[in-house]
Design a protein that fits this description.
The protein is α+β, with helices and mostly antiparallel strands. The chain has eight helices and 13 strands. Strand 11 and strand 12 form a beta hairpin.
Length: 267
Amino acid sequence: MTTAEVERYLNVLGVPRRAPGLEALAELTAAHITRVPFENVSKLLRFRRSGFRGIPDLATFLGDIERFHLGGTCYTNNVHFGSLLAALGYDVALCGADMSKPDVHVVSVVRLDAREYLVDGGFAAPFLEPMPLDLERAQEIALGGERYVLKPRGADGRSRLDHHRDGRLKHGYTLNPRPRRIEEFAGVIDESFGPEATFMNALTIVRFFPGRSLALRNLKLVEAEGDRIRVVRFADAAPLPVLIEERFGIPRTLVAEVLAGLKLVDY
């Protein structure tokens, strides 16, 4: 990443360049989570328009944030953020994580002052701070009806993160701490564009703010603040382009293009 690219990225995040440290890492992490949404609008647009099945380059990624308030899913958000951290002098490793299948999620593990921290900007979760992996007891992050529990490392050196929604275990992942190259995930990334893949058949946009969140999943909009939630369900997709433009800043024309052909159901 060039100096100019680093400066552009930091400008997008609205943070100054600082020497590596835990406070600076926390500032970067919070800025990325709150400035770069988890969304699959961009994924669907690129595939529909050109058949693109990969991670957009940095210039495209940053341009889409600047112009259209877009972001990405786990591969895009975490790979680019990890590259920024490395360019800023952090000791960062790209790692895989097992979900329903092995290594279908990617995260960053940052080593700082002899400790390791999990940084994940691609799980649609309020992980606004680096999460230490040398836990003695489980660490919990809660917002609205969502609860995330990061457990101490197991005997095999792997950490487990569980996601609960409305009191029920929804899913989660097990971190594989071995550093990886993004090329090793080429097959998994390609599969994420398959006809049955989750984010090729749904609409998901999640934005975080300090202490609150706004999430649209198909025909359900959920606003959370503290432990309070407000849910709005829509009968069909007709109101979504205007709603998304007003609440998330993504132009209605792009949303309408993505919605064409999607069969959304409330969930």
